Amino acid sequence: MTGTWDAWLDTRARVRERRGLTRTAGPAPGAPQPSAAPIDLASNDYLGLARHPRVREAAARAAVDHGVGAGASRVVTGTHPLHVELEREVAALAGASIALVFSSGYTANLGVLGAIGGPRSAVVLDEHAHASLRDGAALSGAEVHEAPHGHLPALGEQLTRLRAADPGRRLAVVVESVYSVLGDAADLRALGDLCAEHDALLVVDEAHSLGTVPEGSCAAAAGLWRAEHPGGGTTAPVILTATLSKALGAQGGVALFGGDPTRAAAWRSHVLNTARAFLFDTALALPTAAAAAEACRLAATGEPAARLTRRRALAEQTLLRRSGLAPHVEIGAGAVHAVRMPSPQAAVAAAAALAEDGVHVACFRPPSVPDGVARLRLSVHADHGEQRLRGALEQIASRAEAAWGAATGPGAC
Ligand code: PMP
């Protein structure tokens, strides 16, 4: 007789399988053909820094000189000069004044959201906010609300209602600068104004933008920390979070604080002293901290971001030129473009077939995206060779066109 847990496990696996939602965590599938060098359009190594010689060397040197593990939490004995150096470099890259490094982007979001939660806090999340922001909000003890994706008038109404219901409560708005799957960008300047108007804190997750824009971060590009607010009024407090594992090619996470130095220092101290995901987590491994700091220095030159911009334009032109595919192409504001697929199963099959040709793309299905959504996600990297990139995009376009050609009926999502 099977027990209740076995029966439950079996049912869950069969439901996942039927919906095309089963995942594995093995190495990327597919053996590249000898004729085509593999191309990585799946990972988040947007600037091609994960294997950059200077980044590798920095990690290796730190391992030899200092060892690997930090050995303890940052507030016990885990803080090493390499963490301090990384915080200086990442703040400089982002246009922030100070930073607090976490062991991942996920824990940075848990930590920051946890630090602003508690009684009389209300957090309004964009409905497409990343799982780590949602989890952080859920654990924070704040009242949690959701705003329609990117809809500022609806967000404004929500803030007005929340403020009227309790004038003394603390409000926070939580968004991403560039959304991870759909690739669209938030209007940070308008969000900064809205938050200032409603006395709300603005939390921006820059996971997909840190290092990919000439100003280093979208918040800096939008002037969120400028002393003189473009609207002439007060500025909203702003906290950025980001991962060091995407454009910076390493690992780790960060909370960034800017604007008035006293206010920035007060916020950093508050997060350091209250974020459980900071206090009770072992500090970032030392080779990783050294690698991330070196990646920040490379990214801060602006050269990798400029190359990424040129590759993105190439991808955009190549995908949109195919008239059969153009209606299904979503051009992103950052490094990511997406191709809508008729179903999760079609997306999985296309990604597997492309992998066999050496073209690695990401396949997005629920729960990474809302129900009914299936996408091939292409992240263009600064170090992609132009000719190989063009060829790979043509292969993707052909597979996607074939999938749409084979799709029937209104079930296509
Ligand atoms: N926020 C966003 C928007 C992300 O896409 C990710 C990574 N998928 C994270 C946070 C988490 O970052 P990390 O992988 O460093 O934990």
From TrEMBL:
Biased composition range(s): Low complexity: 25-38
Pathway(s) it belongs to: Cofactor biosynthesis; biotin biosynthesis
Reported cofactor(s): pyridoxal 5'-phosphate
Presence of the UniProt keyword Transferase in the record: yes
UniProt keyword Transferase present: yes
Keywords attached to this entry: Biotin biosynthesis, Pyridoxal phosphate, Transferase
Record-level Gene Ontology MF annotations: 8-amino-7-oxononanoate synthase activity; heme binding; iron ion binding; monooxygenase activity; oxidoreductase activity, acting on paired donors, with incorporation or reduction of molecular oxygen; pyridoxal phosphate binding
Reactions catalysed, as given in the entry: 6-carboxyhexanoyl-[ACP] + L-alanine + H(+) = (8S)-8-amino-7-oxononanoate + holo-[ACP] + CO2
Region (Disordered): 20-39
Top enzyme category: transferase
Enzyme Commission number(s): 2.3.1.47
UniProt GO BP: biotin biosynthetic process
Similarity remark: Belongs to the class-II pyridoxal-phosphate-dependent aminotransferase family. BioF subfamily. Belongs to the cytochrome P450 family.
UniProt subunit comment: Homodimer.
Name of the protein in its database record: 8-amino-7-oxononanoate synthase
Provenance organism: Micrococcus cohnii
Upper classification of the organism: Bacteria, Bacillati, Actinomycetota, Actinomycetes, Micrococcales
